Amino acid sequence: MTLITALARLLIFPGLVFAMPAAWFFLWVERKSVALMQERVGPPFMQPFFDFVKLLGKETPPRTGIGGMLMRAWPLIAVSAAAGAVGLLPVLPSSGGFQGDLILLLALLELPSVCIIAAGFSSRSIFAEIGSAREAALSVSYNIVFLLAIVSIAASQHTFRLEALAALPATPLLWLGVAAILVCLPAKLHINPFSLPNAEQEIYAGPMTEYAGAELAMWELAHGLEWVAGVGLVATLVAPHVHAVWIAACIFIAISFAVVLLLSVLAAATARLAIDSSVRFYWQCTLIFAVLAISSAILMRFWS
Fold first, then answer.
1. What pLDDT, in 10s, does the model give residues 182-210?
2. To which H or E segment does residue 171 belong?
3. Where are the bilayer-spanning segments (predicted)?
4. Which of 22, 25, 102, 191 fits a 20 to 30 Å CA distance from 219?
């Protein structure tokens, strides 16, 4: 991958020029879908963007010392990590990449969650600390499933290169891994039934309790970019491999939109689980997906 190609992917498509409007659009789709299923009107089309602009114009609380510097840094790191994850997605055919870029993608996908945990504890608010503790417990439980599913897909093809994985033919092992990823996405995106880290009825806004103004706007942007990166990962794994650039882009957008709708319907149809139920769900139920995927990968390697 050349420097120009890398910059184009990071800044244009599927980078920031595409990802920021897509983030606001996906947030609107999620809120609008939940509202319609609950027989409400829901927000207007531009509401997530207007919320972002409004927060940018508000004052932020005064912060001093190392703790204040860290609280300002966490949302910026989260936005950078989520944007970098989107830029790594092999949306276009022959988009380049490098050996091991899947490992970098997984690290970037996890960084926003780590920043949220750190931000809650940095704020020294009891509500934020409770939310961060919930986020940490939930992250440990679903990440085992998420990482094992990704690694099983990669191990079956003997590569950790994203472009090679995106060109895979549809196999039962691939679909099993994608199913495990889909089950983990609600927890990673903090939507029902796994929205307990930011449960407003219990702990205000969770780790975001002490944030306002431009800092909170950055958190909202990071959350939207996580949507784009999460559903985009699924889209790149299940999309058919085509050589036409515009067809590949349209397929990526269509599949991403379908996954957003699926997750939104799930969020509207379920209630928030308690922390022990959520952790038990991932440890006892969805771990089966990853175990089956790894077992299938090992068998395929012996048979090939």
1. 999 999 998 888 887 776 656 567 888 88
2. none
3. 6-29, 73-92, 98-119, 140-160, 166-185, 245-269, 281-303
4. 102
CB 181 within 8 A of CB 214: no
Give the model confidence (pLDDT) of 106-141 as tens digits: 999 999 999 999 999 998 888 888 889 889 999 998
- Please give the C-alpha separations between residue 264 and each of 151, 175, 295, in angstroms, as whole numbers: 27, 21, 31
pTM to 2 decimal places = 0.91
Count helices and strands in the chain by DSSP H and E runs: 13, 0
Q: What is the rounded end-to-end Cα distance, in angstroms, of the chain?
A: 30
- List of long-range contacts for 256-259, beta carbons under 8 Å, 24+ apart: 256/22, 256/26, 256/228, 256/231, 256/232, 257/26, 257/29, 259/182, 259/185, 259/231, 259/234, 259/235
Segments making up each domain of the chain, as ranges:
3-303
